[in-house]
Structure formats: structure tokens, C-alpha cells
Amino acid sequence: MLASSAGIPITVVELEDWICGRRPPPRHSEGLNDPLSVAALVHFALSANDSLLDPVARATLNISRSLLDDRKEAELWGAEDLVRFGPAWRAVQSALEAPYPAVSLEAVAERLIAAREQLQAPVAGGQLLTTADGRQFRLDPRRPDLGWVIACHIPAALKACGLALRHLPPFVDMGRFPSDDVDALAEQLAAMIARQASEGLRELDRLERRVSRLPQELEVTKRSKAPLLMRLELAYPGLSRMAAARLLGISHQGVTKLMRQISSRTKEGAG
Hints:
- By secondary structure, the protein is mainly α.
- 58% of the residues lie in helices and 2% in strands.
- A hairpin with a 5-residue loop joins strand 1 and strand 2 (136-138).
- Helix 7 (105-118) packs across helix 9 (154-161) and helix 7 (105-118) packs across helix 10.
């Protein structure tokens, strides 16, 4: 969702291929004039939920970074973007996490609109051109749409306002063209929250069904990769054997053996 807001046409499959180590960050260094690297975008998104005061967010982030360290990837593939967009990211974070006058979506919407207006200033001066007959004129300065920066911090804004108990990462679907009217934007936020909450509940139901079919005991050694593989398959449905082998750091044959072991145990548990 954030990639779409930032104008980066990528797919979930491409992101999973990067996470699994099958390719570099999608569309990076391919001469397609990306607005920013996906590696930097992922780092900004995860860092927006990096709360030392929230043990659940911290544990979730640690698990994510055990699969893909966004900090190292961003330094490798998007160092320039970290410098270019970092000040705007920090400014929006400060603005949206400051105390709110009321616990309401209208208060959040008003703060989002103010943060967006704060980012309207151009980040670079217009280019000066000189014609063949000596006339000069300046092009309009570059004004990139930084709505994705604001969207990164919506979960933090909802928490800071008192509408959520902790950061909820799915609530970033603000859209590329949010309304400048407080009441209209509050309605858009309410619709987004309802939509994402519904999808989250469906995903939770899927996970609970899968967990209920897992064996209670695998009877494996402490060094076995089987429990980790089970968690990976829960998080990434349809994970290929090659991707699992890369993530677990074992051979393709080893993953095949583990999958057979887990499959047989799962069938026994279901029976």
C-alpha cells in the first residue's frame, strides 16, 4: 500500500522475492527512474513502528529483521534516499506524535492535513534555462508527493491520539490523494480502518485455522529448523522450497525433508 502511495509499481511477489533473497530490491537500478528505492521505503515504514515502549511492536520488528534487516538493506540500496527523505520523515513523526486536543478521527485528520501542508515546500529550486536568443526562464521547482511519508505515521498518530492501544501497521492506506477537508478526510480514515480491520480479521481467522491443524509436539531436537519453517509457512503461504532454503540457511534437500516431516505430523494431528 505504501509503495502504491509512493508511486512505485511493484507487486507483493516481487517484495517476497527480495525478502527471500532471490533478487535485489524490485525495480532498483533498472533505469526506470523510481521516485525512491523500495529498500528505503521499507526501512521508513518499519521504523515508524519502532517503539521501545511497545513490547509487541518491538518483538514483531525483531522477527521481521531476522528475515530481512531493513537497516542494512536501506544503507546498501537506498543511502541517498535516507538522506533525501529523512528530514521530512522525522518532521512528520514529531508533528503526528505530539499531544492531541481530543480523542477523535477529526483531530487526527486535522493533524494529517497540517503535516501535508508542511511538506508542500519544494525540496529543490527550479532549473534556470537560457534560450538561444539569451532569454532566461526558470522551471517550476520539483515538488514530489510525500503523502507516503505521512501514511507511514498514521498508526503512530492513531495511538498518540488515543484511538488505538498500540501501533497497527496495516492502517497506512491513506491513498495518494486524500481530502483537504477535515470531515471528509475523517470519513476516509474511518473507511480505511474498517476495511483494514476486516482484512485483518480474515487473516487472523486463517492463521488460527492453520495453527489448530499444527501438531502440539514435533518431537525434534532444539537445533531443528522445523518449528521456524512452520512459522515461515504461516507467514508466507505458498513459500517455495528454494525460498525456504535461503531463509533457513540449509540445503534444498534439507528443506524437502523438513516439509515432509511437518506434513506427516500435521496430518496426524488433524486425524
